[in-house]
Each structure stands twice: as C-alpha cells, then as structure tokens.
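Let's study a protein:

___
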Amino acid sequence: MRRASPLLVALGLVAAVVVPYLALGGASFEPTPTADPCATRDWRDPGGVGEALEQIALSSLDGAACKLGVTREELVLAVRSEDALERFAREQGISRDDAEQAVRDGMLRAVDDAEEAGVLSERVASLARRVVQAVPPWLVLQTLESLEFLLPG
C-alpha cells in the first residue's frame, strides 16, 4: 500500500485540477475571433489625448484592413516599418503604393470620424489630414509611438 500512496496522491491532485477545469468549460475553449474591420464602431468619449489617439489609430487600421480584405492584426504587423509594408504588399499581390494608399485612406477616414464625433477640433483635424497625406504611414505611426511618453496616463 505504501507504494501506491504516492500514485493515489498524484491522481487525486490531477483530479483536483482537471475536474474544476472541465466544470468551468475548459474543454470547450475557443479563441476570441478577430474583429471585423468593416464593422462600424461607435466613437466613445475619450478620457484624454491618449484614448483619442488610440481610437483614431484603431479606426485607421480598421478602414485600411477592410479596404484590403485583411484583419486589423495583419495590418498592424504590416505598418510597423517600410520593409514590413513592402513584404505585406508582396504577400497580398498588390503594389506597395496601393498598400500605402489604403493605410493613408484609413487614416483620413479616421480623422474625419474623429472630427465628426467631436474628438478632434476642425483645426487639429485639418493639420492631421495634411500630415497623413504628406508623411509615409509607418513614419506617422512610429512618431506617435515615440511621443507616447508625453501622454498622460
């Protein structure tokens, strides 16, 4: 019986973990599906500049991803650098210019949505549109990321 005791204790411990796991639905786990980038999203009242920028960035990526027929997550990886965007365009069978224009169109749409929702003033929205049209998308995103330390919260 002494030899069986460790085995019985181990089986009891395994059962103590597995039974609650199964009872709580662990056997039916499915990953959360990716969001549909073409679905309209409501603009919420941002608590500050950081939240406003986050909404604009997500809306930008949604618009571009919808236009390109990819997920927002795929596009996030594509716009992290010029090389990544080039690779993404090649994989999608489109030109880099077309990929860049889709991202730019998504950014412009997001600025329009933010202005309409009252998140951006007309003056700031106008400035943002000029930046989006003049600066490569990955550079806009890199600049925003580097300025993140200036944002509260």
User: Anything to note?
Assistant: The two ends are 61 Å apart (CA to CA). The helical segments are 4-23, 49-68, 72-78, 82-92, 96-116, 122-134, 137-147. The chain has seven helices and no strands.
